[in-house]
Automatic annotation (TrEMBL):
SUPFAM superfamilies: Methyl-accepting chemotaxis protein (MCP) signaling domain. Keywords: Transducer. It holds the Pfam family MCPsignal. GO terms for cellular component: membrane. InterPro entries: MCPsignal_dom. This is Chemotaxis protein. GO terms for biological process: signal transduction. Residues 109-272 form the Methyl-accepting transducer domain.
Length: 272
């Protein structure tokens, strides 16, 4: 027997023990099976001394025929656990003299692959959710800012109304004074001033009525301004919190993007 084959045959148990997963080993020459060591859960039921024709369709025979390293991955249908078969041709003086093959349990890698794919799916779903949350937060922040702007405009318009009413009140006061002066002059004129007295009295009534209307409306306007200012302050606080939340959600979304990328890489590497 060639030296390399004998060395492998003598150390087959040591080689098998070096695998981190459950494994079975097959050593063949160009004619027959030289050694077979079954694994704990994987047993190919190969007989030592059996002709290599019994290995038809396996990577062992493919490696013997091609002279190249061969590998295939299978699911758990045959042995109850997923496994990877590898076959390394053994050469001496450039000639293939045999093959050392292993069938190794792929349960951990298969589990890792499944969990990586599940993590990828969950992460993608969460990333989409946080992206939607970020979009909604931005819309809310924008709407709140628009509401604050509109409230400020309304407050300014009320201030304008207050200014106009102040002018009306001032005019009413002046009109009343004018009416009093007209009444005095009408009284001095005697019979000739009676008609003018009627006009003077109407002016005073109109002035008093205008002044009372303005004075009755002023407190309401001031209360409206006060309430609007409170609303604006509240809206601005909510808007500030909303913007802060948008930043947090965006950072959260970026973190999930990183998790999705990591999970995808993990899944891709598990499929190698």
């Amino acid at each position: 027997m060639e030296t390399k084959l004998q060395q492998l045959l003598d150390n087959a148990e040591i080689i098998q023990a070096s695998y981190p997963e459950d494994a079975c080993l097959v050593l063949i020459d160009t004619e027959k099976v030289l050694s077979y060591l079954p694994g704990t859960s994987i047993d190919l039921k190969i007989q030592v001394g059996a002709p290599i024709s019994t290995l038809q369709g396996t990577v062992t025979l493919q490696a013997l025929q091609s002279g190249r390293f061969e590998q295939e991955e299978k699911d758990s249908h045959r042995f109850g656990v997923p496994y990877i078969s590898t076959a390394s041709p053994i050469k001496e003086n450039g000639k293939v003299i045999g093959v050392l093959s292993s069938v190794v349990s792929n349960r951990r890698i298969d589990m890792l692959r499944s969990e990586a794919e599940e993590l990828t799916a969950i992460s993608q779903e969460m990333a989409a959710t946080t992206e939607h949350m970020a979009s909604v937060s931005n819309i809310i922040a924008k709407d709140l800012q628009e509401l604050a702007d509109e409230s400020t405009l309304l407050k300014n318009e009320i201030r304008t109304i207050e200014h106009v009413l102040s002018k009306i009140k001032d005019t009413a006061i002046r009109s009343r004074i004018l009416g009093l002066n007209a009444s005095i002059e009408a009284a001095r004129s005697g019979e000739h001033g009676r008609g003018f007295m009627v006009v003077a009295n109407e002016i005073k009534k109109m002035a008093d009525s205008s002044k009372e209307a303005v004075e009755g409306f002023e407190p309401q306007l001031k209360e409206m301004v006060k309430n609007i200012e409170k609303a604006i302050k509240t809206i601005q606080q909510i808007s500030a919190h909303s913007e802060e939340q948008s930043v947090i959600v965006e950072e959260f979304h970026q973190s999930f993007d990183h998790i999705v990328h990591t999970a995808s890489e993990l899944s891709k590497n598990a499929n190698l």
